[in-house]
Amino acid sequence: MNIQFSYKNVSARDKSFLNDYIDKKVDRIKTLVKGEDYQNAFFEVRVEKFAKKEAFKVELYFSFPGKDFKSSEDDHTVIEAFDLALDKLIIQLRKYREGLKKN
Q1: Closest C-alpha among 11, 10, 82, 77 to residue 44
Q2: pLDDT value of position 38
Q3: How far apart are alpha carbons 103 and 100 in whole angstroms?
Q4: Which of 54, 47, 46 is nearest to 10 (CA)?
Q5: Of 20, 38, 60, 87, which sits 20 to 30 A from 70 (CA to CA)?
Q6: Neighbours of 8 (CB within 10 A)
Q7: CA distances from 81 to 21, 68, 95 (A)
Q8: First CA to last CA distance, the chain
Q9: What does the DSSP 8-state code read for residue 54?
């Protein structure tokens, strides 16, 4: 899986921490997307720290051949925003997988 990071107004310390944190969390996606689809998948993480308030916006884009998913979340800490956005993305992946099983 190819992972791309994009940051806006985020400190170097937060970037480094988030990169390590995301590497640990990617396994949750790997369990839902198997085999060749996972090898050809693209995962983009966009993180923005708001200039006027102490909050973060995290947008996640995940795609593999034939399907695209997107989720986003705002929160006061970057970890909470990422975790909530990842949970939304995983719900979408589970629904997609269940739909494939029914057909």
Answers
A1: 82
A2: 76
A3: 5
A4: 47
A5: 20
A6: 11
A7: 13, 20, 22
A8: 26
A9: S
Nearest one of 93, 10, 100 to 55, comparing CA atoms: 10
Neighbours of 11 (CB within 10 A): 11
Tell me the CATH number of domain 2-102, given options 3.40.190.10, 3.30.160.100, 3.90.1150.10, 3.40.630.10: 3.30.160.100
Q: What is the dihedral of CA 25, 64, 3, 76, to 10 degrees?
A: -50
User: What's the token pair of residue 48?
Assistant: 């923005």
Q: CA neighbours within 13 Å on the CB side: how many for 36?
A: 2
* Average pLDDT along the chain: 89
Say what the pTM is: 0.89
Q: How far apart are CA 16 and CA 21, in angstroms?
A: 9
DSSP state of 72: E
